[in-house]
Amino acid sequence: MFRVQRTLFALSTIVLGSACFISSSSAATTQSTGSSISVFGQATTSADESIAQLWQQQTALATSLESVGLVGHDDDEVHHQHSNIDGIGGDYDEDALSSSKSDRIRDTINQVAEQVERRESGLQSLNQSLTRRAQPKVQLGDILAVEPVANARVSSPYGYRTLGGREFHPGVDLAVPYGSPIYATGTGVVVYSGWKNGYGNFIEIDHGNGYVTRYGHSSRLMVSVGEQIKKNQEIALVGCTGRCTGPHVHYEVLLNGQRQNPATYLALAPRREE
Q1: Buried b (16+ CB within 10 A) or exposed e, 137-167
Q2: Where do the domains of the chain lie?
Q3: Which H or E run includes 148?
């Protein structure tokens, strides 16, 4: 922004200088106008360099987000912001400008200044859009920072499975010894703690920002509804209550009410060992 302000100041100086040159003789006017054009070219070149640096920063950020799947080539919002950025550049015809009056020079300067401001505004909007896309990644790492149990073996993954017919399994089953501690995978508030059909002794925690985690089949519940929970806090003990064939914790992740594959989140958590 400071570079653009300096550029606009330089352009304004040219306009004032050009007005003074018009009152001089024809030869002096031509020489002065040529000097003004030279300074004008330097000012616009400086503006182009500033914009190029801003553009490189936005391109690097977009590439980073695309590499982790947060922004794609067909992303509507980012494409819209990109398409609204005016392109400027090209050579300046010094002969044409030299024959112009001061008002034509002033109009040209104003047009370039407006283009610079529009492009900077467009880049700022694009930056805000890309930054918003980066937020879920930060929230995800903070909320699901640990595994719910230690030294677990996946006994049943997320997705469709066959158990007397085709059935969708909305979480992941982590098999560990009976009575092993179960930990909250992030800070939040307990919204359910009690018996739930199919899940047995069941806990649900709201972590905010649309994230919810669920823990089922516990032998003992150690938290109550409304209780504030810290990440890595022990909330229950592993059991085999409800629909269960062996001791394990049934772990679910929801985002804005939609079930997610817990394996995606657990891959970000360090291995818990005890």
Answers
A1: eebbeebbbbbbbbebeeebebeeeeeeeee
A2: 2-143, 153-266
A3: none
Q: 30 — phi, psi (to 5°)? A: -60, -45
Region at 251 (left for phi over 0; alpha for psi -120 to 50; beta for the rest) = beta
Alpha helices (H) in the chain, listed in sequence order: 2-22, 26-67, 76-83, 94-98, 102-143, 262-266
pLDDT digits (tens, 9 = 90+) for 253-267: 999 999 999 988 888
Condensed to tens digits (0 to 9), the pLDDT of residues 112-171 reads 777 777 776 767 666 666 655 555 554 555 566 689 999 999 988 988 866 556 788 899
How would DSSP label each residue in 177-210?
A: -TT-EEE-SSSEEEEEEEEETTTEEEEEEEEETT
Q: Is 215 exposed, middle or buried (0-12, 13-18, 19+ CB in 10 A)?
A: buried
Sign of CA dihedral 113, 119, 120, 125: positive
Q: Name the class of domain 153-266.
A: mainly beta
* Rounded Cα–Cα distance for residues 236 and 159 (Å): 25
**Phi, psi angle pair for 117, to nearest 5°:** -65, -40
> Is-above-0.85 flag for pTM?
no
Q: Using CA atoms in the order 93, 94, 96, 100, what is the torsion angle rounded to 10 degrees?
A: 140
